[in-house]
Amino acid sequence: MTETKLRTLSAAAFALAVLAGIAEGAVSVAAIHAQQGIDGELVTQMVLRGLVFAAALACAWYLVAGRRWAWWALLAGLGVLGLASMVVPMAADLAGGASWYYTLGGDVSPAMPAIRVLHIAFVVAGVVTMLRPGVRLSLDGAGRPDRTAAA
Description:
Oligomer: single chain
Strand content: under 5%
Helix content: over 70%
Order of helices and strands: HHHHHHH
Shape: globular
Number of helices: 7
Structural class: mainly alpha
């Protein structure tokens, strides 16, 4: 598979992760709305998530174009911080004796465990694909002669 196709595959995985994140948010908001209504804090969280998702989609778009900064932004933003923000609390719940169903959000909705697993799987697939050496070498700036060596 060519580097361009791998970058596109990685970006598609990140786009699918964003869709799964939107689905998670929609299911959570529906459950919260049904229980207690919508308040300012929930609206703020929804706006922040929307901005993060928009930035992730923009970075995925620029990854396809071969932009190195987008590669780094996706790796740090979704691959490290985003994944940790999902997995660390789940690990803590499991360590505390919670069931997998509860840990994956089954108490919010029966659909939530499947959505959350897909969300995590798409992020991991995007990261694994973009970490291939050929992908990194195909990004803008790769293969340029070292300026310090010429001096």
